[in-house]
């Protein structure tokens, strides 16, 4: 159980690192007259991700969930792959990446890296992580709850992001 708590703590540390990068990128974007959208759903998204990080070890501890190697090791591989995909997205978007919906008007849509394959690859990483992190140690209730709630949040988030990207791409009236 200690190694699992350390794994979850490492993912939490990675989240803190993301927030540092996001804050720096937000300053860059705001200096370029960025459009900020989606502040209404952002607190729910943050709460959901914190809930995932708290729920994983809590369910393992309270529920006495065992480590099942046949499930745990493949899920650990999925988790590592999700982190790699997330940071590929961050690197590809550079200063345009953020945890919030922040779009700089006039910049073209990014179509390289993982964005040449998918419109929202970062959310693929989020979905994979939300399933894999709990299932590394058979915290299936947390995996199911996060997946269902995350589907609702991502439905709102992706709609918001697509609208913001479309608005930023629209011609600016003279």
Structural notes for this entry:
By secondary structure, the protein is mostly helical. The protein contains five helices and two strands, in the order H-E-H-H-E-H-H. The chain has a two-stranded antiparallel ribbon with strand order 1-2.
Structural class: mainly alpha
Shape: elongated
Strand content: under 5%
Q: Enumerate the spans where pLDDT stays under 50 for 5 or more consecutive residues.
A: none
List how many beta strands DSSP finds: 2
Give the SSE map.
Elements lengths: L1 H29 L4 E3 L4 H22 L5 H25 L7 E3 L17 H15 L4 H30 L5
Antiparallel strand pairs: 1-2
Helix pairs in contact: 1-2, 2-5, 3-4, 4-5
What are the main properties of this structure?
3% strand, 5 helices, mainly alpha, elongated
In short:
This protein is mainly alpha-helical.
């Amino acid at each position: 159980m200690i190694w699992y708590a350390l794994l979850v703590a490492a993912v939490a540390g990675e989240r803190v690192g993301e927030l540092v990068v996001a804050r720096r990128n937000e300053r860059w974007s705001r200096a370029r007259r960025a459009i900020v959208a989606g502040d209404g759903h952002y607190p729910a998204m943050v709460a959901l991700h914190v809930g995932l990080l708290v729920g994983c070890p809590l369910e393992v501890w309270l529920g006495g969930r065992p480590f099942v190697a046949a499930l745990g090791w493949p899920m650990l591989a999925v988790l590592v792959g999700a982190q790699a995909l997330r940071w590929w997205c961050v690197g590809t978007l550079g200063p345009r990446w953020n945890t919030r919906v922040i779009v700089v008007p006039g910049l073209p849509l990014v179509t390289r890296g993982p964005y040449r394959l998918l419109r929202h690859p970062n959310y693929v990483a989020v979905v994979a992580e939300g399933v894999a992190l709990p299932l590394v140690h058979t915290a299936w209730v947390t995996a199911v709850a996060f997946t269902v709630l995350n589907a609702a949040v991502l439905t709102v988030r992706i709609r918001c992001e697509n609208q913001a990207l479309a608005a930023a791409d629209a011609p600016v009236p003279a």
